[in-house]
């Protein structure tokens, strides 16, 4: 290596290190002063029947409890999933009155427009887990066009704009949740592996995105209560799971997996048992919107993480179930 090349390499390394320091400082300052956040709700059935178009899209104002309609999705979707990748919201999979979807609709918040991604998943699915890790979208399990649980998994690479099948899970999981607890793993929690009352997981499967392998010797303990079609949010204290169903029983229980002692503990009950709802976390609170509990619901709740109590919120304008929610944050420092 020539002296000039060596100096150039040292300079690049120095600049990269300074960039990391600046990004760390900006991230900390943004944490202190806050960030702008918009809550989006996509898909699902509205009203009391299942003949709706299911391509609804809304913005939700958490402070004022108000709803604003947005341009509708190109594709009707129920039990789909939404993730934020590079500032674009990808609404994936789901089903409608005609078929289960393998497509992805992409919403651009800055332009308020929709496009449909050309690349399709290898397998149509709904009621699956989805997470973003290292600028890639991972999907896990779900159900196929005949509502049969799946063990298959896929990853989407935005650089090549292609989906690739991964090693399947050890067990099928329909109605599971996927969450990123740290920069090393993805947890796939709960879900059904059949349609019987006892065919519901309480276990947690652990995926390593770096090696693209499943951790067979995972030490993550099972939840206290098996559940599917539930809510799951990651907080500073741990992973909170809530409501859902076990067989034909709607659940209201809430548990938290503590990062500190690595155990699950129950922390109370939602005010209304339900499944098929939308949920999100924002400003130290967890929100539930709508869902299903023998009937479609318009009711909403909020878990105050500070005192671990569920509080009722004003109802939504109309009953809604099978929808998905996502929070998109915009840094106050540009």
From TrEMBL:
Source organism, top-level taxon: Eukaryota
A Pfam family per the record: Kelch_KLHDC2_KLHL20_DRC7
Keywords: Kelch repeat, Repeat
InterPro entries: Kelch-typ_b-propeller, Kelch_1
Name by which UniProt lists this protein: Uncharacterized protein
């Amino acid at each position: 290596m020539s002296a000039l090349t060596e100096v150039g390499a040292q300079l690049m390394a120095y600049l990269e290190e300074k960039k990391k320091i600046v990004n760390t400082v900006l991230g900390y300052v943004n944490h202190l002063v806050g960030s702008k956040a918009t809550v989006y709700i996509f898909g699902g059935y509205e009203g009391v029947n299942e003949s709706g178009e299911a391509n609804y899209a809304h913005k939700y104002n958490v402070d004022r409890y108000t709803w604003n309609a947005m341009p509708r999705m190109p594709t009707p979707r129920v039990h789909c999933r939404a993730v934020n990748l590079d500032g674009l919201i990808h609404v994936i999979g789901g089903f409608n009155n005609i078929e289960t979807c393998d497509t992805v609709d992409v919403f651009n918040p800055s332009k308020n427009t929709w496009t449909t991604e050309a690349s399709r998943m290898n397998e149509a699915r709904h009621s699956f887990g989805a997470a973003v890790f290292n600028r890639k979208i991972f999907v896990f399990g779900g159900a196929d066009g005949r509502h049969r649980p799946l063990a298959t998994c896929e990853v989407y690479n935005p650089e090549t704009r292609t989906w690739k099948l991964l090693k399947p899970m050890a067990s099928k999981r329909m109605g599971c949740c996927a969450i990123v607890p740290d920069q090393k793993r993805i947890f796939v929690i709960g879900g059904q592996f059949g349609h019987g009352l006892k065919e519901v997981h309480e276990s947690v499967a652990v995926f390593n995105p770096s090696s693209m392998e499943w951790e067979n010797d995972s030490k993550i303990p099972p939840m206290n209560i098996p559940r599917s079609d539930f809510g799951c949010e990651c907080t500073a204290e741990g992973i909170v799971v809530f409501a859902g169903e076990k067989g034909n029983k709607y659940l209201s229980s809430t548990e938290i997996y503590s990062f500190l002692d690595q155990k699950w503990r129950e922390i109370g009950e939602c005010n209304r048992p339900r499944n098929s709802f939308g949920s999100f976390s924002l400003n130290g609170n967890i929100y539930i919107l709508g869902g299903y509990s023998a009937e479609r619901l318009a009711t909403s709740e909020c878990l105050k993480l500070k005192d671990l109590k569920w509080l009722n919120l004003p109802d939504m304008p109309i009953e809604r179930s099978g929808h998905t929610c996502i929070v998109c944050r915009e840094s106050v420092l540009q």
